[in-house]
Amino acid sequence: MKRMIDFLLVVFLAAFTLQAQDKVTRSVLELGRTDNRTMEHADYIARNIGGRIVGSHMLHHAEDWVAGQFRSWGLEVIVQEAVTIGVGFDRGPWSGRMLSEDGMVLHFGTPAYTAGTRGPQKGRVYLEPKTQREFDRVKGALKGAWVLLETGPASGLAIDASAKADSTRAALLEKGEEGSILFYRQMVEAGVLGFIRPAKAPMQVLYNRAMCFDLTMDNLPKACDILLDEHQFEIIRRKVVDRQIFELEFDIRNHFFPGPMKYHNILGVIRGSKYPDEYVMMGSHLDAYDIATGSTDDGQGVCVTMEAARLLAASGAKPKRSIMFCIWTGEEYGLLGSKYFVEHKTVPWNKISNYFNRDGGPLAAVSVTVPPAMYDDFVKVCEPLTDYNPEIPFTVNKREGEPQPRPTRAGGSDHAYFAMNGIPAISFRESDVFGYDFNYRDIWHTEDDLYDHLIPAYMEHSAVVQAVTAYGLANLDHLLSREGLYR
Question: Using an 8 Å Cβ cutoff, are 45 and 302 in contact?
C-alpha cells in the first residue's frame, strides 16, 4: 500500500510540475505577443545611451541600467569585474569643413582613443612626404598643417603610433625605404595638427588598438587621426596637387581623463529549484563602438537577451536548473568579458548545459541544428515554438556528417571561449524571413549602426524563442549530452 501511495505521489508531482511548466511557457508565448518590450529596451540603449566604448562613462551608464532592469524583474544579479583600462575616453561632437570658394562640410570620423582638437583648428593641407628629400622640403611648413596620407581606404583602426611601430619605421628608413606613414613620428614632432586618411562609406571607425591599454595621462596622442569620406578626400587631394590655396577646419571633442576605468559582466540569474549549480546560459555584449549607437552590434542582442529574462520572470518561471543571462563587456576589444568568465571558471564548465550567443544582427531565430545526441531533447523543448508564429516557422534540425573539431583559437564573438573549452555553444540560425534587405556589412562597426536599422518583428520573435528554449532545457532531468559535440 505504501509503495502505491509513493508511486501516486510521484505521478502527481510530475503532473503538477509539467502543468506548471506548461503554464509558464503559455505565459511567455502570450506576453511575447501582447506585451513584448524588446524595442523599449532597444530605444533606451540606442537613443538614450548610444555608443558604449570601453573606457567611456556611457558604458558604465549601460552597465548600471542593465543591472537595475534585472533587479527590477526579480533576478539575482552578479556584477563581475572583467576589464580595466588605465585612461578613460569620452567622445563629444565633431565637425569639419573645407574653407574655400567651393567649400564643403566634411564627412569624417576619428578612431576612439585618438587626439581631438582644442576647439576649432584650421590649417593648410599637404601631401605626406614619402622620401627624406620630400620631408626635408616641407618640414618647415608642417607646423599647424593637416597632412593627407595616401594609404588607400582605411580599416577603421587608428594609425599605429606605438614605440614598436616607430622602431619598425625607423629601421625601414635606415635601409633607405620609401612609402606611406614612414615619416609619421617626424611629422608629429614637426607640429602637424593631424593626419587624414580616405575611408569608404558607410565608414568603419574603430579604435586605437595598438595603444589604448598602454596610455597614461603623460603619453596621450598629440595629432588627430581623421578618416575622411574617400570622395571628399580625392577632391582635397586634387586641390593640393594643383597647389590651390585653401584650408581645412576641424573641431573634434575627443576627451581623455585619468583612470583606471573598470568594466563588468552583468549576469542575471533565475536560480534553479532542483539543480541550482547547473546552468542554461544565453548572452550578448554590451560594449559598442561609438561612431554610431551600437544598436545592432550588439544592442539588439542585449535587448533580446534582456527581454527573454523579463518574459520568464514575469511568467513566474521556477526552472529546475538555473538560467543565466550574460551581458558581456569588452567584446570589441578581444572578447575580454566572456574570456574572463570562462577562464576564471565562474561556472564549472561541466555544469553548463548550453550557452546561446546572439551577436549577428536584428534577424529572426528560425531554427537550431544540434548533434544527434541532443536532438530529442531540443525537439521536446522547442515543440511549443512550432506553431507559435506561422509567418516565422521554427524547426529543429539534426546535424548530419562528422562533428567539427573543437576550435583552438578565439574569434567571432563571445561563444568562442566556451567552444574552445568544450562547452556546448550551439546558437540559433537567424534569417531575414520577410526580405527586408538587411546587410550586416552595412552596419558592422560603421556610422550606420543606428536604431532605424533594427527590425522589431524579428527581435521580438527571437526573445520568445530564446526564453522558451532556455526554460525547456532548464527543466530537463539531465544536462544536454556532449556526445558527438566536437571531433
Answer: yes
What's the CATH fold of domain 24-86+261-474? Aminopeptidase (3.40.630)
Predicted model pTM: 0.93
Residue 372, CB-side half-sphere exposure with 13 Å CA sphere:
5
Block residue for cell numbers 627624406: 132
Q: For the chain, how far is it from start to end, CA to CA, in angstroms?
A: 51
Angle between the 2-34 and 456-474 helix axes, to the nearest 10 degrees? 170
Domain 104-245 carries which CATH code? 3.50.30
Q: Do domains 24-86+261-474 and 104-245 have the same CATH topology?
A: no
Q: Are the beta carbons of 221 and 211 closer than 8 angstroms?
A: yes
- pLDDT tops 60 at residue 372: yes
**Percent of the chain's residues with pLDDT above 90:** 92
Residue 152 DSSP symbol: S
Ordered by start, the domain boundaries in the chain are 24-86+261-474, 104-245
Query: Of 286, 309, 304, whose CA–CA distance to 77 is shortest?
Result: 309
Beta-strand relationship, 395-398 and 76-99:
unpaired
CB-count exposure of residue 449 (10 Å: 0-12, 13-18, 19+) = buried
| Nearest alpha-carbon partner for 197 in 118, 114, 108 | 108
State the amino acid at position 135 in one-letter form. Answer: F
Picking from 124, 123, 144, 147, the residue whose alpha carbon sits closest to that of residue 135 is 147
Whether residue 137 is predicted with pLDDT greater than 80 in this model: the reply is yes
The answer to whether 352 and 279 are in contact (CB under 8 A) is yes
Cα distances (angstroms) measured from residue 459 to each of 82, 116, 176, 331, 435: 28, 37, 56, 21, 15
Residue 11 has pLDDT above 80, yes or no: no
Q: How large is the average pLDDT for residues 346-350?
A: 98
